[in-house]
Amino acid sequence: MIKSITKFAIVLMVFVQCSSSVVNKARHYKYDPLLILEEEISASNLDNAHAFISWARPFWLRGTDFNSIKYSTVYYPYVYVNGNRYGDMTSLGSISIVNISEMKFLRAIDATSRLGTDHRGGAILISRR
Fold first, then answer.
1. What distance in Å separates the CA atoms of residue 123 and residue 87, rounded to the nearest whole number?
2. Cα within 13 Å of Cα(40), Cβ side
3. CA 81 to each of CA 2, 13, 44, 95, 97: distance values in angstroms, whole numbers, following the listed order
4. Which of 30, 115, 116, 119 is the most exposed place for a label (fewest CB within 10 A)?
5. Would you call 46 exposed, middle or buried from its count of C-beta atoms within 10 A (0-12, 13-18, 19+)?
6. Are 8 and 55 in a shared domain?
7. What is the pLDDT confidence band of residue 64, given thresholds at 50, 70 and 90?
8. Where in the sequence is the domain holding 82, given as residue range(s)?
9. How many domains does the chain divide into?
10. Residue pair 119/111 in contact by the 8 Å Cβ criterion
11. Whether residue 89 is found in the same domain as residue 54
């Protein structure tokens, strides 16, 4: 009886150790839906920012609908590179991902408070090295 309890305790300790190391590795590679870092960008074989975002975070490219009785309008995010307004979403195709260090998506409310009132579709902030 004691031998079986001892064996069980050893097996349990090994299992707990293995599972805790898996959890620690998972924390290291935490997915953030609003942020893309250089490690994730460099792991892909895509060539421009639009292709990469379409693959990695396609919801960034979806417009925001504002419906009323009279009008139905879709707003799309604006693109900023190193703090300067670069253009609309079509301009993402001209940005090479080779020297991008970070991409961040700001939701409409955050973009409006940080960048101005005309950001109903949000904003994509790109930082280059």
1. 10
2. 19
3. 67, 50, 20, 9, 12
4. 30
5. middle
6. no
7. confident
8. 31-128
9. 2
10. yes
11. yes
